[in-house]
Amino acid sequence: MQQLPMSKKDTSNATTKIPVQNMVIGKDFLMIAGPCAVESEEQVMQAAKAVKQAGANMLRGGAFKPRSSPYSFQGLGEQGLIYLKRAGRQVGLPIITEVMDPRDVDLVCAYADVLQIGSRNMQNFSLLKEVGKTKKPVMLKRGLCATIEEWLSSAEYIMKEGNPNVILCERGIRSIETYTRNTLDVSAIAAVKNLTHLPVISDPSHATGRAELVAPMALSSILAGCDGLMVEVHPSPCDAFCDKKQQLTPQQFADMMDDVRQTLALRQRLKQFQLKQYENKCCEVNL
Ligand code: PEP
Ligand code: MN
Questions:
Q1: CA gap 163, 169 in Å, rounded
Q2: How many C-alpha atoms does 112 have within 13 Å on its Cβ side?
Q3: What average pLDDT does the chain have?
Q4: Radius of gyration (Cα) for the chain, nearest Å?
Q5: What is the spatial distance between Cα 72 and Cα 60, in angstroms, rounded to a whole number?
Q6: What is the spatial distance between Cα 64 and Cα 74, in angstroms, rounded to a whole number?
Q7: By the 8 A CB rule, do 165 and 205 touch?
Q8: Number of domains making up the chain
Q9: How far apart are CA 234 and CA 82, in angstroms?
Q10: Within-domain flag for 10
Q11: Residue 240 is part of a domain; what is its CATH number?
Q12: Burial letters for 148-176: b for 16+ Cβ neighbours within 10 Å, e otherwise?
């Protein structure tokens, strides 16, 4: 492992706490939901109302979209930021959105509560340094083919500039598998939780590319120890401008949220069980 002076875990074993509006990332379970892209004011408002009602605590939506083809929808730009901010305000949710270009950092900062660095930009070092100079929390997605070490080194780029508020997001890596869009590296969630004090979240939408696999991978990520999830939700996925196959309907998201709550409760019980076992062992040793 490269030197990780700022991101490596210390002996306290604590997760970094990042306050955003009235929640604390790293303490409260972060549940980000919303459309892949902001398409219109009405679309993002409908999505915002639905995800808020189902229990999300942050709204997502891309205004600057990294697309493989220059002929695909590129996002609404600043108009998209305005719609996203309005929707977040209306339902009382903070917003996260991607910044792709170092020249847009100030603009995106004026609207977003959390900046997203997308997978394709994980090693755009000029962009990492630029967001590192801001005071905004930054969610750093793992690169499509990045090792854990490269991912954490990119987090160091942001922190070294003076911004300690970094959240890591596992979003699947390229593998030999073609049935799924990417392969969710669940082991990376547990590994990075062991290696660093930064909050780690999972994005089962981009990891699988398939709506029917989002909930099972979300629940697996919870048991692997993640501090939150990011899930794409669209009022009408079949009409979406991008990522149609992976976006959940509001009903699918609400159903998933019931399972998320139950799995979080199960995780809590397992933690207590582990603690009990440990206490029992201590007793045995003392005897
Ligand atoms: C996104 O979350 O909007 C996105 C484009 O994801 P990724 O960078 O992981 O492909
Ligand atoms: Mn998407």
A1: 17
A2: 30
A3: 96
A4: 19
A5: 20
A6: 6
A7: no
A8: 1
A9: 18
A10: no
A11: 3.20.20.70
A12: beebbbbbbbbbeeebebbbbbbbbbeee
Number of residues written out for the chain: 287
How far away, in angstroms, is 207 Cα from ligand 1 center?
10
Interatomic CA distance for residues 121 and 142, integer angstroms: 9
Q: Yes or no: say if 51 and 76 are a contact pair by the CB < 8 Å rule.
A: no
Q: How far is CA 50 from the centre of its chain?
A: 19
* Residue 239, token pair as written in the block: 């009409």
Q: What is the pLDDT of residues 224-259, one digit of tens each?
A: 999 999 999 999 999 999 999 999 999 999 999 999
In a domain, 23, yes or no: yes
What whole-number distance in Å separates Cα of residue 139 and Cα of residue 170? 10
Q: How far is the CA of 154 from the centre of ligand 2 (A)?
A: 22
- 159 lies in some domain: yes
Ligand 1, residues at Cβ distance < 6 Å = 36, 62, 66, 98, 118-120, 141, 171, 206
Owner of token pair 């997001």: 169
Number of Cβ within 10 Å of residue 126's Cβ equals 11
Gap between the Cα atoms of 94 and 79, Å rounded = 17
Domain membership of residue 5 (yes or no) is no
Per the listing, tokens 């002076």 go with 5
CA distance 175 to 162: 35
Spacing, Cα 251 to ligand 2 middle (Å):
19
pTM of the model: 0.96
Position of tokens 């109302």? 49
Pocket test for ligand 1, best of 171, 184, 229 (most atoms within 8 A of CB): 171
Give the pLDDT confidence of 63-83 residue by residue, as tens digits.
999 999 999 999 999 999 999
Domain containing 133 equals 18-286
> In this structure, which amino acid lies at residue 7?
S
